[in-house]
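Input/output pair, single chain:
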Amino acid sequence: MGKLADRAVVIGLGSPIMCDDAVGLEVSKAIGALGLPDVDTLQEAVGGLEIIPMISGYRFAVIVDAILSGEHEPGTVLIFEPESFDCTIANVPAHDINLATAIKMGRQMDNSVMPETIRFVAIEVEDLQTVSEEMTPKVAAAVGPAKNAVLHLLSEFRDPARNR
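Output:
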């Protein structure tokens, strides 16, 4: 059985040049700027199976990303568990694997190195199409609340009794 580090990783996903898609990156940078001793932060433009080595070995992982559902106001911060995405898991070619499918596959390959707990912090966005290094105002304003959501999840990780 693999040994999980008693640490957390916060991974911000997105593209720094695609308008609101940068929000996950900015939230991860904001967490990193706090210098928390038990938290590593990454900013990545990856998805699917590429996420597995980034979260392997950590007890807790928070993945922060933009979401464009059209169901919420831009700037809305949402928290999900991997099970929230079970309906999206599919048998598809490797280049089409979404995060939920990748996490399920990672657990099937070697659950001992996968985090005990994974959470997603998603920020509803309005523009993923425009090539711009500037986020829309509502999404840029959500970086602080999304950072606070991540900090809340990290506090639950540190105090598992509160998590029950």
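The CA atoms of residues 19 and 137 lie 10 Å apart. Residues 86-95 have pLDDT under 50 and may be disordered.
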